[in-house]
Amino acid sequence: MAAPRPSGLVTADHTFTVPLDHDRPDGRRIRVYAREVRDAARADRDLPWLLFLGGGPGAAAPRPLGGEGWLRRAARDYRVLLLDQRGTGRSTPVDGRLPRRVGDPRALAHYLAHFRADAIVRDAEAIRRALIGDRPWSVLGQSFGGLCAVTYLSFAPEGLAEAFITGGLPGVSASADEVYRALYPRVIAANAEHADRFPGDGERARTVARYLRDHRTVLPSGRLLTVEAFQSLGNLLGGTGGGRRLHYLLEDPFTGGTEPSDAFLAGVDRALSDIAGGPLYSLLHEATYAQGDGATRWSAHRVRDEFPAFDAAAALDSGAPVLFTGEMIYPWMFDTDPALRPFRAAAHVLAERAAWPALYDVDRLRATTVPVAAAIYEDDMYLDRDLSVATARTIRGLRPWITGDHRHDGLRTSDGAVLDRLIGLLRAAP
């Protein structure tokens, strides 16, 4: 039932039942939830629908609080549908209860393999047909949601009237190894930028790393804080304000003593939890780059060896900076994080899985007639700018906006300006 909100938005709940495996429509079924959002002043108008596909993998749709500039901008022109992608939020969840129910790691891995962009797009098509029949709708994909939007353009363009993509154009032909070879240098550059901005943080990071090397340290959640886990805080560096958040963590880690303070450990725990989100993020992150080109085999872990600057042990011995890493998943995370440990065996099965279906159809992308506009961020630490530009040139008619004015989360932090710019690009099209 629709209900007005103090923010001036009206919301309504929608729940759908879809096959776990769309190729087996008579098999197991799961629930998928979506929240409709409309501008209260325009609630009676027959506005077109806009499907929002958010970041991840494994993140639920944002919960409207009223101040989201991008959502208010979207609701001026559209009925917005915020999708809890399968496995997240109020959709049938993937959480710590699942390994206990499934038991066998191979069966669990088989189940989890149905939660990538291809399945999300097929869910979206089932939802579209249930809501509006044969009419196409618009899609807005942020980050991982942008990858899903490109999959949508590849396999069900008839369902789309237009597409907006923010920080989410993937390398449509790049393997996981190629993706990480492109991203590690960007993470090194982000470290250098942080060091210039906060010159004292380097020595404090070395002090923390040295302590963690010599002392077993457990965070309040039970997560083991190793040197490598400490380095993974660098994932913060790609978002607006993330560098400052890391700086505040490092301001005084040993306040009043010779071991890390409770406040520091609690802050690190919160940051690592915010980065990881739900288990699907860690389980399927590398699988988002897998397209029948062989197993990923812990690609980020293997490729990291090609960049010795991230070797913290060598850095501590030589006096070099201890560099933070970025949006990379490593096998040790399933050993040190209690929330991920139940999925450890299944994660290794997924890393060796070679039979991943393609996510993109390059020929269809080159021939598409769907209008597309995309924001590409110059210093994006999560999606390589050059791979994104190459994809922008592949998708027929795509109108790119390449900008250094926003970070990867520009959709959220720009008070609606990023989305407004993309809508303007398509409205100005001949």
Task: Give a written overview of the molecule.
The chain folds into 2 domains: 3-173 and 360-427, 3-Layer(aba) Sandwich (Rossmann fold); 176-351, no CATH class. It contains 19 helices and 9 strands. The protein has helices spanning 69-77, 97-102, 105-112, 117-132, 144-155, 176-197, 201-214, 227-231, 242-250, 262-276, 279-284, 299-304, 312-318, 333-336, 344-351, 362-367, 385-394, 410-413, 417-427; strands spanning 3-4, 9-19, 29-39, 49-53, 79-84, 137-142, 160-166, 372-377, 399-403. The longest helix is centred in the middle third of the chain and has 22 residues, at 176-197. The two termini are 40 Å apart.
In percent terms, what proportion of residues is strand? 5-15%
**Spatial order of strands in the largest sheet:** 1-2-3-5-4-6-7-8-9
C-alpha Rg (nearest Å): 22 Å
Which CATH class of the largest domain is shown?
Alpha Beta
Q: How do the SSEs run, as a string of H and E?
A: EEEEHEHHHEHEHHHHHHHHHHHEHEHH
Determine the oligomeric state from the structure.
single chain
Distance between the termini: 40 Å
Question: What name does the CATH topology of the largest domain carry?
Answer: Rossmann fold
Structural class by secondary-structure content: alpha/beta
Tally of distinct domains: 2
Instruction: Indicate the percent of residues in helices.
Output: 40-55%
- Number of helical elements: 19
Mean pLDDT: 95
Structural key phrases:
Rossmann fold, 19 helices, 430 residues, nine-stranded mixed sheet, 9 strands, 2 domains, alpha/beta, globular
